[in-house]
Structures are given as C-alpha cells and as structure tokens.
Amino acid sequence: MPVVARSMRDPDVNPCLSESDASARCLDENNYDKERCSTHFLKYKNCRKFWVSPPGCLYVRRHL
C-alpha cells in the first residue's frame, strides 16, 4: 500500500476515518445505491467540515 494511502488509514492523520469507512461499507452493502447511504455521506461531510475547513481547522491546529 502506498505511503499516502496507508497514512489515510491512520486515525491520527484522518480524524474522519470511521465515517469514511461507514460510507464505503454502506455502498458495498447497498449495491452502490448512493441514495440509501446519504446519511453516512452527510456524517462524513459534517466531520470533514468540523475538522478541516476554516475558520476552525481544529485538527490541523491541534497537531501542529
């Protein structure tokens, strides 16, 4: 596995790892019907918004 891909599997690097995994698992279980997985996508989107996007950048600020 490439270093970048391996690092994205690390919860210290990717704070939304569980939400990402849940979205992928939902797609697998529902034959890639995105409509059925919309709640998982929304949770992932909200997680990314909380940790990564300005003005908070809580995750980035905490790990510098």
Automatic annotation (TrEMBL):
This is Coiled-coil-helix-coiled-coil-helix domain-containing protein 7. It comes from the Eukaryota. Belongs to the CHCHD7 family. PANTHER family: COILED-COIL-HELIX-COILED-COIL-HELIX DOMAIN-CONTAINING PROTEIN 7. GO terms for cellular component: mitochondrial intermembrane space. The keyword Disulfide bond applies. InterPro entries: COX23, COX6B-like, Cys_alpha_HP_mot_SF. Pfam families: COX6B. It comes from Sus scrofa. Keywords: Disulfide bond, Mitochondrion. It is found in: Mitochondrion intermembrane space.
